[in-house]
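FIELD: query
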Amino acid sequence: MAPARTTLVWFRRDLRLQDNRVLTAALARGGPVIPFFLLEERMDRGTAGEWWLGRSLESLNRDLLAKRSRLIIRQGETAAVLRSLISETGATAVLWDESFEPAQRKIDEKVRVALRGAGIFCDAVSDSLLYDPRRIRNKQGTPFKVFTPFWNHCLSLEEPASPVRLSGDLPAPSSWPSSDKIGVWSPGPRKEWTQKIAGSWTPGEKSAGSHLEKFLSGPLLDYPLGRDHPATEGTSKLSPFLHFGEISPRQVWHETRRRMAECRRPGALRAAEAFLRQLVWREFARHMLFHFPEMVSMPLHKEFLKFSWRKEGHLLRAWRKGETGYPLVDAGMRQLWATGWMHNRVRMIAASLLVKDMLQPWQEGAAWFMETLVDADLANNAFGWQWVAGCGADAAPYFRIFNPVLQGIRFDPRGAYTRRWVPELSKLPDRYIHRPWEASPGILAAAGVRLDKNYPSPVVDHDAGRKRALLAYSRMKK
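FIELD: result
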């Protein structure tokens, strides 16, 4: 009898068992399956992402143990680790989830060359997206650069494949290779901070499913309006689970479509479309990163290379700490520091204040988000910051500058979100919650607010900052 063909399954950003095409492909080969995770270089993960990854791997290992399997953890140079695992296990194949990020694409190609040269079957399975960015082109045969045509084109394609469930145990080898302990790598210099954000999240596949179910059972029906109001639970909060592959976009797509098709409430299908547009917006960001990898650090509109950014450390520090003097922005930045997450509407407002009112380089904001967001994603992050800065694909025009006061009045009218995260302003009347500097000394005193003592005055004047930004933009154009 021929020996069983052992397959190594390299987990990367597909940290789940259900609807995992890599696992499905490995099982189809027959023989034992050995799941492993390689602690590569940081790969653009910040401290918050490192924390999430560790907890997600622990969850994945528990799920594998329930399937009579386990997760092997190794550290080291990619090719060397793979050679060692192949030698120890006699594996004849290595399968992994394909990445479209620039650095990981280079690693993938080196791995393919090394494994094929050694006679090992290898395959990178596209498992993290609904649509393969290599196959999507506009009528001119070039990549899309505007979202709405991209969305319409995706809708014209075949429906994303239905999720595939994994049942039964995973076939195990007769003996397991050694493994490092999960979490042996350093959690970064902010260990106390990650312990704080741990109170807001439970990483893992089970938690991802619970978040989806909770969202579909309530907030989704009001999503078109509710998603913009940070005081309410109007968004899915699935972004970190999607980033780490703890839930597949196919599952989110099909479950959303199914639930809304069964719902008799008026507007259900419209709500589903609004949410699924955001799922495809995520795809659009990856489409852009695949075709324009330089967008991580370079503006897609090259004239912005001449833009006169002002690097002023005190402004950047005030923004990071949530001490800009604009309550809604400060609430968002403090929510980020407390939980590793920020409401998307507030992200846009905070980003606009930094790059337009303050004229700080968008790359500085992008770096801070990569460090502190649990859902920090290379494509989404760079794409979003370039969108706000006006220098990316399908970007907001540069003259669109969010007024942080008016945005607060519109999307947090009673100040519930702001009061939660900026408690020193909690006793201010609604009228002044987003502009405390306009309140009289008596109103401030009654609310216990002392400007520039326990809450700062605005670090920049919005009207003056807007004029300065537009002047810098016009000079760049000339």
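FIELD: remark
The two ends are 76 Å apart (CA to CA).
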